[in-house]
Amino acid sequence: MDTHVQRSIKHCLSMIAPFEASDEQRKDGQVQFYEFMVSIYQGMYEKPEDYLVFPIPYEEYIAKRKQKDIEKKKEKEHVSDSRESTLRNTFQQAIQFYALYFYNAGMKCKGIDEQSGALVISKEEYASVLEQMNRIHESKYNVERYEVLSRLGIQVYENKEAVQIVHKTYKRLMEGVLYLCEAPDSKYKWMNFLRMDYKNAYIPIPTVDDICKTLPVRSVDAVKKLEEQLLGMKIKAKIRPLRGIVSDFKWKVEYSYKSKNICGFYADNEYFMLCIYFNRAENITEFSKSLQEEDSELFQWFRNQFPERLCKCQSNRRVYFGDEPRRICGLSNRAEIVNPSDKDIEKALYILRKYRNISGDII
User: Fold this and answer.
1) 262 with 209: CB under 8 angstroms?
2) Which has the closest alpha carbon to 348: 358, 359, 360, 340?
3) Hey, which residues does 266 pair with through a beta bridge?
4) What are 200-213's pLDDT values in tens digits?
């Protein structure tokens, strides 16, 4: 069985964009950095400790925690476990250390030395890079992490004026780093770097098709069926940028119509959740009444797609499914269809069309 750390590393690999060079002239440098980072994640998956990523603390804590009791509450309450969160953040930051180092260095560099292919950074700026790297959890292992990079061929030279970073074999690797770092500033810049998405690095927003390239066929089919229902409507797809590519980060896409979210999905390589938004809690109660009168079986299915939340936060709302009251999160007011079957998707799309008055036949 994979540890949580290994599952997170595997998630990183699945979220990396398929390699597509920005153009033929830059391809060599881009493919060298791409393959180098992929090899780091692959090696890390096999032997995390060799990369100063430690699975045991998190595994031991999770084993001691009364998991069944926590999971029972999780659906109905906001569960805060600061120790679990800290341990998870610790190993996730360790996983992304190597990408973060190259990103910080690329953002501070003055350019590429034409003769050696090295990334050139002033001493002062390189000191600030190392200082930034010391802000992560367990930065005490950073010296050993730099030694890992050295064993993998990364060489750091210092002269009177500057620091140079180069790979001893892949002399154009730093060109691949710099291309991503020189992309225009946007909320997707860090995400594109983590995913080594050369194709989209200079594009303002990724497309849903780009997301689908990282998803399993079943999820892609669900997305396509959803988008087919929206054809002809002036829909805007809003894609949330990923702050990381470790296992608790999923794609989030929301489709808005006339400035209101009407549907969307969360997805990664192992998880898919289709969402139907009702915008206000009162709308859920009202719609459920009409659905109950029309089709009692579909009404029962519909009721089951709203997780109950018994937290005492001010956003908690009461809705009614027939005579049954239920507390839900008023910040979302949505049906959540998790890992849907084909029948579930069919029912969800019928609900979406009916509530939003979208014409068309069931797929």
Assistant:
1) no
2) 340
3) 252, 273
4) 999 988 999 999 99
